[in-house]
């Protein structure tokens, strides 16, 4: 399984970002996929998850701002984040785990995902 993020960079406050994650080595439909981020000195936190049945869930802090989507034909997962602010500055990672996403409480537990990409840096300034 390989996950490769792209699309990071410098974004102005109030703007939007769109990140991509190219995945290979497995069948998307059999894996829960998610987006996480980690700011300097802070723990990695979940943002959004896409279940094997297409159901999307978001961390409470990102509801209304984040959108997770995928293009199966391109084997790519996306994250759009609107109205960004400096606190969104972080390394952003996509992740995958075999099978369905876990239930609330564990869905954004970083330890339940077996695969992570190397990340893409987003700076909001």
Kindly, what is the distance between the CA atoms of the first and last residues, rounded to a whole number of angstroms? 34 Å
Low confidence ranges: none
Percent in strands: over 45%
Our Rg estimate from Cα atoms comes to: 13 Å
Kindly name the structural category. mainly beta
Major sheet summary line: 7 strands, mixed
Count every helix, treating DSSP H or I runs of 4 or more residues as helices. Answer: 0
What is the average of the pLDDT values? 93
Beta strand count: 11
The residue fraction in helices comes out at under 10%
What letter string, H or E per element, gives the SSE order? Answer: EEEEEEEEEEE
| Gross geometry | globular
Key terms for this structure?
125 residues, mainly beta, globular, 49% strand, four-stranded antiparallel beta sheet, seven-stranded mixed beta sheet
